[in-house]
Amino acid sequence: MHPAVNAIISVLLGIFTLLCVFPFIYVIIISFTSEESIVRNGFELIPKDWSIDAYHYLWSMKEQLFRSYGVTIFITIVGTIISLLMISFYSYAISRPQFKYRRFFTFLAFFTMLFSGGLVPTYIVMTQFLGLKNTIWALILPLAMNAFYIIIMRTFFLKSVSESILESARIDGASEWRIFFQIVFPLSLPGLATIALFSTLGYWNDWFTALLYIDEPSLVPLQSLLMKIEANLEFMRQNIDVSLMQQSLFDTIPQESAKMAMVVIATLPIAVSYPFFQKYFISGLTIGGVKE
User: Fold this and answer.
1) Does 203 score more than 90 pLDDT?
2) 221 and 206 in contact (C-beta within 8 Å)?
3) 192 near 185, Cβ under 8 Å?
4) Which tens digits make up the pLDDT trace of 53-95?
5) Does domain 57-286 have CATH number 1.10.3720.10?
6) Which among 266, 156, 154 is positioned nearest to 203, based on CA atoms?
7) Of the candidates 235, 237, 261, 259, which has an alpha carbon nearest to the alpha carbon of residue 249?
8) Distance (Å, whole) CA 226 – CA 76
9) Hey, where are the domains in the chain?
10) Coil, helix or strand for 147?
11) How far is CA 220 from the centre of its chain?
12) How many CA atoms does the CB half-sphere of 50 hold within 13 Å?
């Protein structure tokens, strides 16, 4: 490639990267801006008054915040492991020609991508038949299986795991469990890491499941808690009595900067963990994309 063309492409990619990163940097800056400065001057890239009042406000409810962080971390780790095992088992089975009913189960997974039972039947099954309301499993099991991820892993197994290697292992007397964990699993790390990243993001950002099934404060995940805090701030802003004492109390709450601080504490951990998945993520998306 010509050096001039290479330089132009590098500059364009650098600008695109900056455009992608800038919103998050801007949110961090606003979270450290004083509420008075936001009211007086609006959102500024370089604020005139810096403040950590937003983080002090969130720290005042640290007990519930840490509890919700723990719930979110637990359901993210456990849910990702369960999801990865279930999806990989299902995908591996329907990718092998020896499985007699692979076409039926492939269609079964694909059908759920087009049609679902609906919210009301799902709620009835979860609460009345399974009895999972106000349990930690209500936050894990609904997101454990994903038909789209099954199709991705099925294609990955078909394109990346040679049937001749598996047949050689069977001739040597290896069981299907040993073949999967000692041969297929190591060969499929890029695809599995990609699915693990998708599942991790899904569990970390999920708030709707807790809205449906969780009433216990001790089981509220982080995203749901932050939504409740934001909703309370908005409710207070719209319905507060205009008496002097209440107004002065409300003015001490950093409303806008607190919202941005909530975005930071909810996004930063998952953003920091992304580089550890990056090389597998890129490889997992590209392997199997070209047909021979």
Assistant:
1) yes
2) yes
3) yes
4) 888 888 888 888 889 989 999 999 999 999 999 999 999 999 8
5) yes
6) 266
7) 237
8) 17
9) 57-286
10) helix
11) 16
12) 5
Token couple for 119: 């919210």
- Catalogue the E-assigned strands of the chain: none
Q: Are 284 and 190 in contact (CB under 8 A)?
A: yes
Distance CA 263, CA 27 (A): 8
User: Model confidence over 11-42: pLDDT tens digits?
Assistant: 898 999 888 888 888 888 888 888 777 778 77
Detail the DSSP E strand segments found in 191-243. none
Burial class (CB in 10 A: 0-12, 13-18, 19+), 28: middle
Helix axes 3-31, 255-286, angle to 10 degrees: 150
**Alpha carbon distance 143, 207 (integer Å):** 12
pTM: 0.80
Q: What is the DSSP letter of 180?
A: I
**How far apart are alpha carbons 57 and 39 in whole angstroms?**
18
How many helices (H) and strands (E) would you count in the chain? 15, 0
Q: Could you give phi then psi for residue 291, rounded to 5 degrees? A: -95, 135
